[in-house]
Amino acid sequence: MLYATTTPAEKRARFRERLRSGELLQFPGAFNPLAARLIEDRGFDGAYISGAVIAADLALPDVGLTTLTEVAGRGAQIARVTDLPTLIDADTGFGEAMNVARTVQALEDAGVAGLHIEDQVNPKRCGHLDGKEVVDVGTAVQRISAAVRARRDPNLVIMARTDIRGNAGLAATIERAKRLVDAGADAIFPEAMADLAEFEAVKTALGEVPVLANMTEFGKSELFTTDQLASAGINLVIFPVSLLRVAMGATERALETLRGTGSLRSEVAGMQTRARLYELVDYEAYNAFDTSVYNFSLEQRGSQS
Asked: Does the annotation count 161 as an active-site position?
């Protein structure tokens, strides 16, 4: 009832341990707290909190318009309702070294298990758009170093994302990833890899360092299966915007039906039922709690006085 029974510290320790296990962890993107509950209910390893989704939820493009306050607020809302570890997109850290440090502590306070910081120039843009620019390696290293120094819980996973592949190729991606690991990054997120061989090359070059694959629809990377990614040695796969796209697609179709027919009767079979919604929000536990608190009558109270 209410929130998760597992503390943020416990979730972080478990996430770090599983990230080093060698298995492929699957983190679908939670576009709201209820979606995170459903991700947990269906047996996934964790929930991803996408910066692109937070922006889209505010009807904004993913071009660095969201604030740390908005991101930390949504991160806290999602992290506190699930016992799963959550990984959040911290963009560029919302500035340079001092801003990065503040970002890490704000997101740590929000209860997430890990975060990733990228090497794009401010303001950033979606990782699968053309025209991205990345900062020089010194600035990228400084961001990760500041993030590592700022965390208070040593189990908070600091992941470094690099977007350099689109501008400078695979070799530059591997070289930058190594520098970011040397700066203290616990894991690497190489964005917009061209094919499975590139993912495998990054993983081979980094050895035991965990590597993340971003499986986002309509992007530059092919949508590889989890078996393919596991065979390439990938440790974590995210599906950042998928559930939002599915939900918004269904919403748009329902609105077209309503506009066209004046009723949603034809859509009812595809809707989540009231019973299923109540199950996810644990309605029964709230009802039992309410009954245990308000279990007196005026007659009983008078007889005890």
From this structure: yes
The answer for 192, left when phi > 0, alpha when psi is -120 to 50, beta otherwise, is: left
Q: What tens digit of pLDDT does each residue of 56-103 get?
A: 999 999 988 999 999 999 999 999 999 999 999 999 999 999 999 999
Q: What's the rounded Cα separation, in Å, for the pair 158 and 87?
A: 10
Total number of domains in the chain: 2
Whether pLDDT at 169 is above 60: yes
250 in Cβ contact with 214 (< 8 Å): no
pTM: 0.93
Domain assignment of residue 301, yes or no: no
Query: 284 catalytic, yes or no?
Result: no
119 as an active site residue: the answer is no
Q: Is 48 a catalytic residue?
A: yes
Report the distance separating Cα 94 and Cα 276, nearest Å: 38
Question: Considering 116, 125, 151, 245, which one is annotated as catalytic?
Answer: 116
Residue 91: active-site member: yes
Q: Are residues 133 and 269 in the same domain?
A: no
Answer yes or no: do 126 and 47 share one domain. Answer: yes
User: Are residues 52 and 190 both part of a single domain?
Assistant: yes
Domain interval for residue 73? 8-241
Q: Which of 119, 126, 128, 198 is catalytic?
A: 126
